[in-house]
Amino acid sequence: MDLDKEELLKRFEDYISYNTQSDEDNDQVYPSTPGQMVLARHLKEELEDMGLTEVSLDENGYVMATLPANGVSGKTVGFISHMDTSPDAPGGPIKSRVVHDYDGKDICLNEEKGIVLSTKDFPEIMKYKGQDIVVTDGTTLLGADDKAGVTAIMGALEYLTGHPEVKHGKLRIGFTPDEETGRSPLKFDVKKFNADFAYTVDGGEIGGLEYENFNAANPVVVIHGRSVHTGDAKGKMVNAISIASEWQSMLPEGEKPECTEGREGFFHVYKISGSVEECRLDMLVRDHDRTKFEKRKQYLLHMADFLNEKYGPGTVEVTLHDVYFNMLDIMQDGHMNIVDLARKAMKKAGIVPVELPIRGGTDGAQLSFKGLPCPNIFTGGANFHSRFEYLPLPSLVKACETVIEIACHGWEVK
């Protein structure tokens, strides 16, 4: 398969020129930032120019399109990537450059500001020695998450429309807003998308094939205190901040993100706000095992009961909110054949699949539970959500090849 690396690079650089950083605090508007809609219109025009059918852009920023089958019939395969970039690092304007024939040493991203992509901090980059790597100038993220995914899908479509002799089944394409805020699947119309199964092209380094993710809940803990003048506080003041500290200390030692890996779950307080009178803790509860996940939530309720017994009824209130569940439950219920399809596609592209549980979630997890089985495949990027994000170009090429291979054989799935 002869893919033009320079054309893929040009396409990627075009997409990252759009500042599509989403806003997790703006949950009243879809998409959460105007830049996402600007890129959505651009992608819609490109899809139309390629000759795809049923091209649509709705008021919420979801782009969908169809590449009809050419000479074969069978299952309809979907490919989905998100247009927004993370709010965790500055989102633009992005100034990228290509490090040609990487020498395996530290990369100076910004000499003026002294920003260096260090092999000590990020040793994984050394395995890409000799390759061309796209980096930033150290002042913003790169946006490979997930514009590398968008590029891989669009590059595959360009190849397939330019090579009508290559047979493929019906393909459905979806580009979504606000994945980084966790709201992307909320308004994704699975019925309108009308695919038998799909893949999010939203993974990391080359070979990644993901069909197992955390079960996730985002509890909110509110602690009610009582403020009294400090000069007369003995026996009267109830300091909500002190109780918040006690709450944190009651969480199991070693079961926090900084102490866990693989399939190990955790509790995580990621934001605290408030005063003596009232304090709020925003939390994450994660576990791959559903039974352990439910026990973790119950543990928080037992903590609240203990503190309410100690300080008085109503002192601690816990609101549990499930966000997504482990897609493995869906895959093992008759859909491992689509995981196997991705394995075969990667191997045909000369890639060794790397199958690890996701220590997070994907749109595919929520879509799987909405009736669209949807594993995740790699884009090639690394150090996402960071000024030190990078994208080895050969990995992007292989991501595009993998999409093409799936497209050419997905219709055969029984």
Description of the structure:
The chain has 414 residues and is α+β, with helices and mostly antiparallel strands. It is built from 10 helices and 18 strands. The strands form 4 sheets. The protein has a 7-stranded mixed beta sheet with strand order 1-2-8-3-9-17-10, with helices on one face. Strands 11, 12, 13, 14, 15 and 16 form a 6-stranded antiparallel beta sheet that branches. A 3-stranded antiparallel beta sheet has the order 4-7-18. Strand 1 and strand 2 (63-67) form a beta hairpin. The longest helix is centred in the last third of the chain and has 22 residues, at 290-311. The two termini are 26 Å apart. The mean pLDDT is 96.
Please state the overall shape, judged from the principal axes of the Cα atoms.
Answer: globular
Radius of gyration: 23 Å
Spell out the helices and strands N to C. Answer: HHEEEEEEEHEHEEEEHEEHEEHHHEEH
Number of strands: 18
**Spatial arrangement of strands, main beta sheet:** 1-2-8-3-9-17-10
Q: Unreliable segments (pLDDT under 50, ≥5 consecutive)?
A: none
> What would the average pLDDT be, to the nearest integer?
96
How much helical structure, as a percent, in the residues?
25-40%
Output the structural class: alpha+beta
Number of helices: 10
Oligomer: single chain
Distance between the termini: 26 Å
Strand percent estimate: 15-25%
Biggest β-sheet, characterized? 7 strands, mixed
